[in-house]
Specification:
Structural class: alpha/beta
Order of helices and strands: EEHEHHEHHEHEEEHHEHEEEEEH
Number of domains: 2
Radius of gyration: 22 Å
Number of helices: 10
Strand order of the largest sheet: 1-4-3-2-5-6
Strand content: 25-35%
Helix content: 25-40%
CATH superfamily of the largest domain: HUPs
Oligomer: single chain
CATH topology of the largest domain: Rossmann fold
Number of strands: 14
Length: 311
Amino acid sequence: MEVINIENISVLERKTIVTVGMFDGVHCGHRLLLERLLTAAAESGLMPVVVTFDRHPKVVLSPDSSVSLLSTYDERMSLLESCGVSNVVIVHFDNQTASLSACHFAEQYLCRKLNMRELVLGYDNQFGCRMNDDFAQLPQLAQRMGFSIRRVEPVEMFGVAVSSTKIRKALAEGDIEKANAMLGSSYSASGVVVHGRHVGTSLGFPTANIKLDDPLKLLPAEGVYALRVRIGDEVFVGMANLGTQPTFDSGRVELEVHLIGFEGDLYGSRLTVEFVGKVRDIQTFPSAELLVSQLRRDMDVVKSMVELKRC
């Protein structure tokens, strides 16, 4: 897959069919949009191009608000490639970009640089500065600049249209199965194993304390989760404690992962955890012995959940 910054493009020689969006999570709605883009490109002979941004617009537009990402930049690129996308154009999102109206953005970037002949948009997709909102005038621009506009219908699940917002809500509620269904894949997070408090080791359940690649990456609600854990080419069944350690008076929210059947040193290793399902909420136990008994029961549940998902 070729990824190029739009500032490095003077004008493309080939005529293109383009879609624009953040594509956070590359969920089922995005996947349908990309499928329609690629199908239309094959039928028309136009070159398919995905235009996206180097960072989430909220980072610039609402710097004081919390931004939760379903996918980091690298994850987004990998997911787009897995959907068959071969050409991605990156637009740096800053205050200048944010000030562009929809028509200005389309004319300056999509038409004059990308030689666009068709624009494919999701059912509710809009872009451009809300303070100078001329999105409704895109059809007039299309007529003047010689491109068509195609809308793609929503993908509906659980009685709602799939969206990044709905997926974030499901994750915030700990509903992993719902989030995964809307994503079309297992929700995952990656990071490096760092030293923690070593409480798990003392209990006979050594854990890998994971420092996420991107602090803006959204994690599900606090709880105990069943996981698949990828280390290089190897895959393990894992059990995660996401949150604090109330039994041991820990106030820090951490992602700690126990790899079932793994022996060895993981410090400095990079792990990817795929959330399969939630086992239970975080609890406080009156003793370490009772906690260990619960962890053993949790491990049996985790193994059954992950094995079922593999079938």
